[in-house]
């Protein structure tokens, strides 16, 4: 082998890695664009937001890779891309690994819990009274002042049964609101339930679509601080139980046929597009609030998505303020799906504690946040 051949091979490898690096930069740029460009206009772009954490990690890899080569200036490609993407990166990762979580009850604080309760066990077969008891005890133990439960189930003939009346009694709630957004058979409603130890004023269930509503109400907190609270549950990605089982099989078995991935992408595109339409309606309503706002619920969308970016606006994200890592609220399929969110106005609320621990009682983990109420003197 001549001396020229190793040199040609090294150049070929170097150029290949350069092209891969440029592709990674473009990939990250598309992820950033997906957080600001409405899927209602370009639904395929929205799919890139699912891959944002991976795109960030790949670009970090290239920064480190070029650092240990003679082509150190090539670091600038990914470094510049990461710097330009910092607003998106800071919505994906939270760095509060040593943060103290103050969940104690004391004057001047309010605890809020948002939890997709997966029908309160209605999908479990066979039905278990022991499960019902555990579910109610779990909710009681969280001791939330305001409790938002998307995917709550009630009989059509009495929205206080079988759980609401017991939750009200256990938690000392004085206001209970329920808005159905779907039916389950002929006898049950599915919808969002909200329980509060503070009375709701000016309650409205804003219709975003035939089966989608955003609930709102004005709550007067201690210190005469009025906050307008919003509760949402947006449409899902449309994956059936069979689709989820298939994804789990693919994760654990190499070589399985991936032809169904095309149908997943189509479902994702349609879901992103629909959520964008609902989001734009909801954001207009929220913008009309004369008071500081608080928003929570199951958004079914990821950080750095168009839905997340639009709803959050200039509000704080409780997870970013007190959480760590990528976070996980949907506890099936992937270890990193954070699709439930809490957004708050720093002029009214300051997060001092946050929990999002795994529970087998639902396919979602609850968001539980403890806030210090910002007084007028602190405004």
Folded structure, characterized:
The structure is a single chain. The protein is α+β, with helices and mostly antiparallel strands. The chain has two domains: about 5-90, no CATH class; about 110-379, Endonuclease/exonuclease/phosphatase (Deoxyribonuclease I, Chain A), CATH 3.60.10. It is built from eleven helices and 14 strands. The chain has a six-stranded mixed sheet. Strands 6-7-8-9-12-10 form a six-stranded mixed sheet. The chain has a two-stranded antiparallel ribbon with strand order 1-11. Strand 7 and strand 8 (about 225-235) form a beta hairpin. Helix 1 (about 5-35) packs antiparallel against helix 3 (about 50-65), helix 3 (about 50-65) packs antiparallel against helix 4 (about 75-85) and helix 9 packs parallel to helix 10 (about 305-310). Residues about 240-250 have low confidence and may be disordered.
Which tags fit this structure?
about 375 residues, alpha+beta, Deoxyribonuclease I, Chain A, about 35% helix, six-stranded mixed β-sheet
In short:
The chain is α+β, with helices and mostly antiparallel strands. Helices cover 37% and strands 25% of the residues. It has 2 domains: 4-92, no CATH class; 109-378, Deoxyribonuclease I, Chain A, CATH 3.60.10.
Give the SSE layout.
Elements: H1 4-34, H2 43-46, H3 52-67, H4 75-84, H5 86-92, E1 94-95, E2 109-114, H6 129-142, E3 146-155, H7 164-171, E4 175-184, E5 188-196, E6 201-209, E7 212-221, E8 225-233, H8 241-252, H9 261-287, E9 293-298, H10 306-312, E10 316-317, H11 318-322, E11 324-325, E12 340-344, E13 349-355, E14 367-373
